[in-house]
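Figure 2 data, in text form.
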Amino acid sequence: EILRVTGVQTCALPICTFYFTAGDEYAAHLYWYTRTDGAYTNSTVTTVGEPAYELHKVSDSSHTVEYCAVLGKIVFFTDRKGIKFVLTDSHKVHKLLELTDVDAELRGLEVHEQSSRLFFTDQGADVVYRISVDGESLEAIATAIEDPLDLAIFPTGNSTAWLFITSYTEGKIYRTNLDGLGLEVWKEVPEVRGITTVPKNGHVYWTTGAGSLYRSTVGGDEVETLGTNYGDLVDVTVKPGDDGGDGLMFITDAEAGVIYAFEEDEITGDFATMGTAVVMTDTPRSVCLRSKKD
């Protein structure tokens, strides 16, 4: 297996450690890469340009990593039956949760920092859960969604937020509060896949298996088509910029085997229409980011 990382702009901006998940149903892992000084090439990574980027893989025996989420110096990730985490200074794998349900197939994962909770989907059992970051107080908060896939949180206050959940099977994006109350269909989107939010700008972004990328306001108005003619877009991740225009958007095309990065224009605040292929590998899945300050 050869993974190629062509980072160039990524670490010139405030993101200096970039995590992603990739692999098929038999061998999927959590990876990260870091910047190195000078060209670097070996059997597992090929870097292009200066500076160079070195690829690393987390050694997890399950080989079924799905999605990841970062809280400070902790990177959480779902495997098929549970949640694990690594600390960014050691990357040793620790177990947080293991479900005994034979139908369990964990997918999307999100952190709500204000409540110190993780939210995740179990696509096999049709359940959306939440659990504290210390592994206590597991609760099912939604059971009426068929094959829940990805999810994203849009904070609305110190302890309140909207939770968005996608269902590829139903072709719907749901919205609820963090207790699972008031569950409603927010939008009907055929083949919807990944979802993320940017509270700073009031936007929700989502992708489809038909190869399109969209965004709208959190109220669901003013839908914009940001990209089309990709393959199977399974994930979108956005790091909002400050006034210096240092934002980044990543989209994951599982069919093409590429993760693209798009830089924010410092004048308009919009993302570039042409992206850079920063990772090329078989079946990339999701991206999560650790900021430089962490």
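Caption note: The CA atoms of residues 60 and 122 lie 20 Å apart.
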